[in-house]
Amino acid sequence: MQYTWKDIEQHVACCTQCPLSRTRQLPVMGRGGRKADIMLIAEAPGAEEDRQGKPFVGRSGQVLDGILHGCGLTREELYITNILKCHPPGNRDPKEEEKEACFPYLKYETFLLKPKIIVCLGRVAAQRIISPDFKITRQHGAWTYRKNCALTATYHPSAILRDPSKFDVVKEDFFRIVKKREECRGRGVL
Ligand code: URA
């Protein structure tokens, strides 16, 4: 059976596959352009996202918007989602069993979107999506190719809140992402 966006939304909205469903306020389904070429994947909703039920609407979201704006990207040109759709209390790292329980939703989102470029925001997403031994400090900005998709990772926006000097590093990575999209378009891949 072929799921639709509406099916995934409905499943996420009433998911009880892991204990986070008992502590969350609202589950956070991915958002953005459903025809976007670029998919951003972060780790899990924060406290503000939990309250509003939307990804990146808190302080990390403001930082992300600053980066996107600086690179001429809008949220509609991207699809933004998380590995976990529910907020882990205290912003702790997602547990293995939570990631496994939630992974089918990400798979369906990816299947329906068919992004040409996937950008992992932070270590947790990069290690789940690109490689378990991914080192964000050494490997951010590098490209891996899988099927018809280019994958990369950069620091999570919350890392910029902790260390503002990373802003320019992430912006550089995003400039390369925009360039990669132009290359894909030039080759007729997009
Ligand atoms: N941090 C994340 O990893 N995801 C969000 O949606 C917001 C903050």
Describe, in plain words, how this protein is organized in 3D.
With 190 residues, the protein is of the alpha/beta class. It is built from nine helices and six strands, in the order H-H-E-E-H-H-E-H-E-H-H-E-E-H-H. The protein has a six-stranded mixed sheet, sandwiched between helices. A hairpin with a 2-residue loop joins strand 5 and strand 6. Helix 1 packs antiparallel against helix 5. The protein is globular, with a radius of gyration of 16 Å. It starts with a helix and ends with a helix. The mean pLDDT is 96. The structure holds uracil. The site of uracil has 10 residues, from loops.
Summarize the structure.
The protein is α/β, with parallel strands linked by helices and about 190 residues long. Helices cover about 45% and strands about 15% of the residues. It has helices at about 5-15, 20-25, 45-50, 60-70, 95-115, 125-130, 135-140, 155-160, 165-185, and strands spanning about 30, 40, 80, 115-120, 145, 150-155.
* Largest sheet strand order: 1-3-2-4-6-5
The backbone outline, from C-alpha atoms, is globular
SS content category: alpha/beta
What is the rounded Rg? 16 Å
Query: In which range does the helix fraction lie?
Result: 40-55%
Total of helices: 9
SSE string, helix = H, strand = E?
HHEEHHEHEHHEEHH
Tell me the span between the first and last alpha carbons.
27 Å
Largest sheet: 6 strands, mixed
Short key terms for the protein model shown above:
single chain; 9 helices; 190 residues; globular
Please specify the SSE layout and strand pairing.
Elements: H1 5-13, H2 20-23, E1 31-32, E2 38-42, H3 47-52, H4 59-70, E3 78-82, H5 96-113, E4 117-121, H6 123-129, H7 136-139, E5 144-146, E6 149-154, H8 157-162, H9 166-186
Parallel strand pairs: 2-3, 2-4, 4-6
Antiparallel strand pairs: 1-3, 5-6
Helix pairs in contact: 1-5
Bound molecules: uracil.
Uracil (URA) binds next to loops.
